[in-house]
Amino acid sequence: MGGLLFLCCPLFAPVALADWHVVWSDEFDYVGPPDATKWNIENWPPRRVNNELQSYTDDPENVWVENGRLVIEAQVDPDDDSLFTSARINSRGMGASTYGRFEARIRFPDARGTWSAFWLMPSDPSLYGWNQDEGWYWPNCGEIDIVEQVGFEPEIVHASVHSKAAYFKNGNQRTDQIEIADAADVYHRYAVEWLEDSMEFFVDDESFFRVENNGEGWEWWPFDQEFYVILNLAVGGSWGGREGIDLDALPQRMLVDYVRISEYSESDDLDPEVERDYSVDVLRESR
């Protein structure tokens, strides 16, 4: 579906766009598998996390680049033990930052049972120790969910942050949501601006969620270390499968136009080519 994206006035004023300069990106301006110098493709069995039902594979039928976009496709696969296959890729060891603006332009699927995410995890999850309750370093290590969307409510997108002191099992998860009526029909830009003492989350530069460092230690704010990008499309799971799976609606695709990591600079001598990175997409015709 084609169309123009018109921006709303933000609830909070973002850092001036010209002050962000791109330090890592994938514009997906090539054809074939995701660039191996930028992405790891994960191979996982079903139910490894969140009771998700799919196998994550590196099969070119589940993840590829074409027409200037990354495609992650969830499929029904009767030959796979899990019945479902999809993909999950990450930039660990290749694209990461401590603080910055992380942004992607995404079109989400629209089918009951899908669960899409653009999110961040720390390069060294062990920094704040093992969590005995969870049997891993999470959530001590922190997690930043820039955007999640589940197929049983495709017009709602969510942002969240997780830490030892504040996550869903404690009943105090820091999260919010915003309605984007055409999130499954056209591309929108999803971003977090992560500074030393705060994070602010945006859709098309409209701010809808803000979290601040309360100064009460790493249990609340482990976000002082390097984080990398993850993109994935799950099937089922503790959240995505809450209302079942529409088998007839599969396959479904999560489409990503670009991913960018930017760092803040107070310099007046920014490269004008970099500055255009954030102006060219403001009223960009959707594919």
From TrEMBL:
<comment type="similarity">
    <text>Belongs to the glycosyl hydrolase 16 family.</text>
</comment>
<dbReference type="GO" id="GO:0042972">
    <property type="term" value="F:licheninase activity"/>
</dbReference>
<dbReference type="Pfam" id="PF00722">
    <property type="entry name" value="Glyco_hydro_16"/>
</dbReference>
<dbReference type="InterPro" id="IPR013320">
    <property type="entry name" value="ConA-like_dom_sf"/>
</dbReference>
<dbReference type="GO" id="GO:0005975">
    <property type="term" value="P:carbohydrate metabolic process"/>
</dbReference>
<keyword id="KW-0326">Glycosidase</keyword>
<feature type="domain" description="GH16">
    <location>
        <begin position="26"/>
        <end position="267"/>
    </location>
</feature>
<dbReference type="InterPro" id="IPR000757">
    <property type="entry name" value="Beta-glucanase-like"/>
</dbReference>
<keyword id="KW-0378">Hydrolase</keyword>
<protein>
    <submittedName>
        <fullName>Licheninase</fullName>
        <ecNumber>3.2.1.73</ecNumber>
    </submittedName>
</protein>
<keyword id="KW-0732">Signal</keyword>
<feature type="signal peptide">
    <location>
        <begin position="1"/>
        <end position="18"/>
    </location>
</feature>
<dbReference type="InterPro" id="IPR050546">
    <property type="entry name" value="Glycosyl_Hydrlase_16"/>
</dbReference>
